[in-house]
Each structure stands twice: as structure tokens, then as C-alpha cells.
Amino acid sequence: MTLPQRILLLVLCLSICLGGISAVFWKQELKYQLPTPVPADYHSVAVGQQVALPAALSKDKAYFLHFYNPDCPCSRFNTRHLQSLIGTYRDSISIVVVVPSEEDIEKAQSEFGSALQILVDESQAIAKSCGVYSTPQAVIVDNNQNLFYRGNYNRSRYCTARASNFAELSLIALINRRPPPAFGLAATQSYGCELNNADLEFF
Question: Which residue ranges of the chain lie beneath pLDDT 50?
Fold first, then answer.
């Protein structure tokens, strides 16, 4: 093999490696820095609007709903923060984990405890009622079944920016009988995995 051929082969190998690394970086990291695409049939639900809770939930209680998909990297990054919220607020409000399929119940129980109520939302009826189209998302419903908050947990993927703990600040407001806080797009523009995305990465 001549020197120019070796150089060409080396350049080709390096290009393939860089292309593979770039693809992995996009699938595992970069695409989750962008807002989740809004579905064409999406109908937003405004704060104060009544939502249809499933029959498994009491109609006169307030709920904190966590939309969780164990196959979504963003949901997994959020796990520790939610565990902290459960430990702090479970005596003040009913916390429910909403998963996309029966297969996800065991994973959710192992992450958040078997005592926590878990609902399966295969038809996405709960998600649509609450205006959710991605995971992870937090939804707070007051005891009149009105939407109090729907959105992101935090501006930071790892929920390390305490000043932007949107879900927790909303939860505190509800517990203290204050009006829903107004956060803007940073809280309400969804980031994460599409609810019906079959192309999630496992790692």
C-alpha cells in the first residue's frame, strides 16, 4: 500500500469514527438540549382549566403527577430530584407516577418505591388531558381538578439550579394556598423525550 493510500485510509477511518461519535452525541445529549417537538394534534391546557383525572384517582384531592418513561435519558437524569420531592412532600400531597406501559411499572417501583401509586397511560389519555407531550413532566392538579402547574422540573437537566425548581416552587405555592406562580417559557416549553418516540436510546 502506497503512502497516499495509507493516508486516505487513515482519513476515512477517522471520518467514520468522528461520524459515529457525533451520532451518539446527538442521540444521547444534544437533541435533548432542544425543545421537544410539539405534536401536530396537540391541544394546550391552561392553568386553571379543569382536567379529567382517571377513575383510579379521587376527585376531591390534589395530585402531583410525574410523567415518567424509564427508557428516556431525561427521565433518568430527573430521578434523584423526584426521589427528593417524594421524601419531602409525600405527606402533603398525593404523588402519582404515570408510565407509558405495563412493562414500566416494575422499573418505576424500583426507582420510587413500591408504595407510590403508579398509573399506566398507554392511550395517553391522562397526558392529553393535562397537556403533556414529553417526559419527564410534572403536573399539579388542585383538589377541584383544575390544572395548577404543567411543565419542566428545572432549567437544569440535573435539577441543580434551585432558583428554577419550577415544579417544587409550584407545589409549595399549592400547599400554602397561594396562586400558581408564573414562570414563562423556561418552565412550560417541554424538553425531553416525545411520549410516543420509539427511537429512545438504552444505556
Answer: 22-26, 29-31, 198-203
Summarize pLDDT for 91-104 with one digit per residue, the tens.
999 999 999 999 99
61-88 confidence digits (pLDDT tens): 999 999 999 999 889 889 999 999 999 9
CA-CA distance, 151 to 136, in Å (whole number)?
Answer: 9
Cα–Cα distances (Å) from 4 to 8, 12, 128, in that order, read 6, 12, 59
For residues 167 and 180, the answer to whether their CB atoms sit within 8 Å is: no
Cα-only R_g, the chain: 20
From the list 98, 88, 87, the residue with the least C-alpha distance to 65 is 98
Backbone phi and psi for residue 55, each to the nearest 5 degrees, phi listed first: -60, -25
- Hey, CA dihedral for 157, 161, 165, 166, is it positive or negative? negative
CA distance 14 to 12: 5
Nearest Cα to 140, choosing from 107, 99, 92?
Answer: 92
pTM for this model (two decimals): 0.82
Left (φ > 0), alpha (ψ -120 to 50) or beta: where does 10 sit? alpha
Q: Is residue 154 a contact partner of residue 165, using CB atoms and an 8 Å limit? A: yes
Which 3 state secondary structure label does DSSP give 11? helix
Question: How many other CB atoms sit within 10 Å of the CB of residue 48?
Answer: 12
